[in-house]
């Protein structure tokens, strides 16, 4: 059964963050708040946990389009190829924020993602998930829990999220009611930024 763990965004309690980090290190799955929709996540370095998420989402892991949730832009070079200054300025301007940026995958991606030519990078404006990534020391692989065919509350109310995901994950973090608008997805792998999906993040910032 999943544990419902209350954590406050303004000041995440270190003991609760540590508990989540330890769960991730052991291959556990978590549902956690972001600045958009609640996410389903695991440690990017744990292949067994990655396989579990792929199975839940009914996709092949090597063909999945999961996002990498980072604390900031400092460890970007671990996962993406060298980017030019114009691209970096866009990232700096928009992050942390409700955006997913598609960038060219780097050579040091985890083995399971080695064949990916692009990766989606997120730095949410949410202290809880950034504190978790900080404690873990590497990104979380993440995917949205939203299902367009479902009642809205099952992806926004932590107690109902736990009810639905009880036997699939180890911890559901209650960080308050979630949003129901996804991140704005922008492809930065070509000469001009291309908006793939307009979501919560304003495209005027481009």
General description of the model:
- The chain is an alpha/beta fold.
- The chain has one domain: DHBP synthase, CATH 3.90.870.10.
- It is built from five helices and ten strands, in the order βαββαβαββαβαβββ.
- It has helices spanning 14-25, 47-56, 85-94, 127-136, 158-165, and strands spanning 3-6, 30-32, 39-43, 67-69, 99-104, 118-122, 140-144, 171-174, 184-187, 194-197.
- The chain has a ten-stranded mixed beta sheet with strand order 1-8-2-3-7-4-6-5-9-10, sandwiched between helices.
- Helix 1 packs across helix 4 (127-136).
- The chain starts with a strand and ends in a 9-residue tail after the last strand.
List the keywords.
single chain; 206 residues; alpha/beta; DHBP synthase; ten-stranded mixed beta sheet; 5 helices; 10 strands; Sua5-like_dom; tRNA threonylcarbamoyl adenosine modification protein, Sua5/YciO/YrdC/YwlC family
Give the integer mean of the pLDDT values.
94
Q: CATH-wise, what's the superfamily?
A: DHBP synthase
Rg is 16 Å
Report the top-level CATH class.
Answer: Alpha Beta
How far do the termini sit from each other? Answer: 43 Å
With strands numbered from the N-terminus, the spatial order across the biggest sheet is 1-8-2-3-7-4-6-5-9-10
The CATH architecture designation is Alpha-Beta Complex
Total individual domains: 1
Which range does the strand content fall in?
Answer: 15-25%
Structural class: alpha/beta
**Helix/strand order:** EHEEHEHEEHEHEEE
At CATH level 3, the topology is DHBP synthase
Number of helices, counting only DSSP H or I runs of 4 residues or more: 5
Shape: globular
Helix content: 10-25%
Low-confidence stretches: none
């Amino acid at each position: 059964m999943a544990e419902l763990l209350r954590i406050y965004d303004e000041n995440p309690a270190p003991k609760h963050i540590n508990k989540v980090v330890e769960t991730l290190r052991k291959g556990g799955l978590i549902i956690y708040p972001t600045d958009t929709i609640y996410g389903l996540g695991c440690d990017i370095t744990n292949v067994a946990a990655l396989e579990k998420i792929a199975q839940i989402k009914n996709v092949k892991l090597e063909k999945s389009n999961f996002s990498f949730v980072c604390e900031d832009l400092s460890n970007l070079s671990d996962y993406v190829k060298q980017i030019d200054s114009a691209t970096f300025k866009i990232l700096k301007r928009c992050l942390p924020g409700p955006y997913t940026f598609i960038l060219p995958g780097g050579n040091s991606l985890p083995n399971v993602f080695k064949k990916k030519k692009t990766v989606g990078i997120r730095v949410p404006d949410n202290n809880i998930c950034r504190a978790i990534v900080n404690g873990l020391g590497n990104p979380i692989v993440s995917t949205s829990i939203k299902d367009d065919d479902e009642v809205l509350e099952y992806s926004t109310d932590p107690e109902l999220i736990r009810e639905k995901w009880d036997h699939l994950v180890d911890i559901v973090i209650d960080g308050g009611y979630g949003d129901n608008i996804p991140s704005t997805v922008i492809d930065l792998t070509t000469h001009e930024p291309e908006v793939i999906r307009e979501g919560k993040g304003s495209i005027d910032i481009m």
